[in-house]
Amino acid sequence: MTVEITSTEELRELLGEPTAHAANKERVRLHDLDRQWLAASPFCLVATAGADGSCDVSPKGDPPGFALVLDDTTIALPERPGNRRADGYRNILENPHVGLLFMIPGRSDTLRINGRARLVRDAPWFEELTVKGHRPVLAVLVEIEQIFYHCPKAFLRSQLWKPESWQPEVLPSRARLVKELEAPEKELAELERHYGPDYLRKLYA
């Protein structure tokens, strides 16, 4: 039998109350240490939700420091070539609230930023977002409302950064996944060529 939790009271009864440290660690402005973290981070997860409540989480990655700090309460994330679905971008147009999780390889803590986002198609600082000749056609401008560091327990439990725990070969290759689930009409050899060395050369094309 499934027993559902339906109230905050039930939730707190099960989990208990957060410590004073955890409850009060939120800030609304970037500290110099936050700026250092953003300068070192090459990867971020961006969570959005549409007007109807449908959710999306999109990975964003670039050389370390790709999140441009404009001031103590504003950062910008560049667009890079992708699949053009624009799920998260369309959500932002309907609902500006976003959640960002910035990671640094090897670090088990993460920097969380929540705020309100806008899509910008040009600004004087776009030149600073250019990488390998790619000037983004848009950027996500985030006005920070909440910022704090998240504890490392999830990363430690999962052993995410321990190479001895990695088993990438337990699943079919990217080409085989696409062949099975997305493009059965294409030849596997064609897909393997697409996701081979040429794929890396087209990251900013």
Automatic annotation (TrEMBL):
SUPFAM superfamilies: FMN-binding split barrel
Domain Pyridoxamine 5'-phosphate oxidase N-terminal, residue spans: 35-151
InterPro entries for this protein: Pyridox_Oxase_FMN-dep, Pyridox_Oxase_N, Split_barrel_FMN-bd
Pfam family, one: PNPOx_N
Name this polypeptide is given: Pyridoxamine 5'-phosphate oxidase family protein
